[in-house]
Amino acid sequence: MDENALLRRVGKGPILQASDWPVTVNAVFNPGAVRLADGTTLLLCRVEDRRGISLLWAARSDNGIDGWRVDPEPALAPDPVNHPEELWGVEDPRIVWLPELERYAVTYTAFSPAGPAVALALTEDFKRFGRVGVVMPPEDKDAALLPRRIDGKWMMVHRPNTGLGASIWLADSPDLVHWGRHRPILTPRRGAWWDANKIGLSGPLIETPRGWLTFYHGVKMTGAGCLYRQGLALFDLAHPTPCRMRSDEWVLGPREDWERLGDVGDVVFICGTTLGDDGDTLNVYYGAADTSIGLAQCRVSELLDWLDTHSAGECMVSQLP
């Protein structure tokens, strides 16, 4: 474990990889994460088969660290007959428990010739899913719901690719089906910044007394290609606009060989976190080089303290023209 880092890697390598699966697959990465009522940690992993098609597959652990048990069958496989938007796969899930509905909401990328779109499914047990279908049309991805209504509306953070570039937006809905009032809440910085080329939501927002704490990924184009790293932002608690703070540095970047070498090198990509019984310890699950899954740990209190001294002060949110 990296004792001096803000996010401390657990172990010396991936916690899950393709060789852990009961069938031959190409890669296992970008998992959504949740702690179930019995304390078990469930990772809903993106599993890419040897055709190149992704599906969602559950792995479970009693402590969220090791002893992972992979389900014998996928949890959510593409259904292109009934959902043509899934023809090329289902990818990158984010999981949020909705107390009002007593269901888990899984937002994921449905991929087809039309491009990536945000789809939503609801489940009680990660065995049976009720698909709502596409809720954000292409090109859009990196979406998560807030766990409760605000001002009577459901809220979804998502990442359309618009005239503002790949930016983080917020939308609201009365029923989880019809979405409107789309507005940007965080946009890429310009110049040499680590998040200058495009950004997107990482895991679901984390509710704290000070606001909605958010991991987001930033991309910088280099001479060797794209470099994906993770930063932090804090949004207002009463309403997730405006942005209150934004980290001027990244907090997790590719460093280990298995994070730098893989199907897509130099990528760390968070889709899910879980909070410990103390209400402070955070397990952060991330995809490494689009090939395997890593785990880092941190404390929410330390992340907030760090933001106080490492925020650029200006959230730099471009407004609609």
In a nutshell, what does this entry contain?
The protein has two helices and 22 strands. The chain has 321 residues and is mainly beta. Strands 10, 11, 12, 13 and 14 form a five-stranded antiparallel sheet that branches. Strands 15, 16, 17, 18 and 19 form a five-stranded antiparallel sheet that branches.
**Low-pLDDT windows of residues:** none
Going by CATH, the architecture would be 5 Propeller
Shape: globular
Strand content: over 45%
The portion of residues assigned to helices is: under 10%
Major sheet description: 5 strands, antiparallel
- Number of DSSP strand runs: 22
Rg calculated over all Cα atoms:
18 Å
Subunit arrangement of the protein: single chain
Keywords:
five-stranded antiparallel sheet, 4% helix, Tachylectin-2, Chain A, mainly beta, 321 residues
Description of the molecule:
This protein has 321 residues and is mainly β. The protein has a single domain (8-309), classed as 5 Propeller (Tachylectin-2, Chain A), CATH 2.115.10. The protein contains two helices and 22 strands. The chain has helices at 257-260, 300-309, and strands at 8-9, 27-35, 41-48, 54-61, 69-70, 89-98, 103-112, 115-123, 129-136, 140-145, 154-162, 165-166, 168-173, 180-186, 198-201, 206-208, 211-222, 225-235, 243-246, 268-275, 281-288, 292-299. The strands form five sheets. Strands 10, 11, 12, 13 and 14 form a five-stranded antiparallel sheet that branches. Strands 15, 16, 17, 18 and 19 form a five-stranded antiparallel sheet that branches. β7 (103-112) and β8 (115-123) form a beta hairpin. The radius of gyration is 18 Å and the shape is globular. It starts with 7 loop residues before the first strand and ends in a 12-residue tail after the last helix.
